[in-house]
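Figure 6 in text form: structure in, sequence out.
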């Protein structure tokens, strides 16, 4: 989970947003973003798609990094 935390944080930073801006852009609460970045929960596929669009990072890379079984 630690790798996912670091990676999701990097995706947001690549988009040039703080947690509050990222949450608003994704249509979720700031606490949800915090939970994703601390590994407490994982984003849905829909949210991963939005992250890819906003950050410019290919969805395949984000989704593989979020699924340790791949």
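Output sequence:
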């Amino acid at each position: 989970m630690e790798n996912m935390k670091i990676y999701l944080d990097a995706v947001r930073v690549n988009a040039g947003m703080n947690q509050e801006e990222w949450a608003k852009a994704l249509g979720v609460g700031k606490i949800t973003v915090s939970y994703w970045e601390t590994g407490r929960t994982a984003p849905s596929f829909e949210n991963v798609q939005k992250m890819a669009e906003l950050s410019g990072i290919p969805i395949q890379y984000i989704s593989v990094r979020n699924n340790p079984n791949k």
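Caption detail: The chain has a mean pLDDT of 86.
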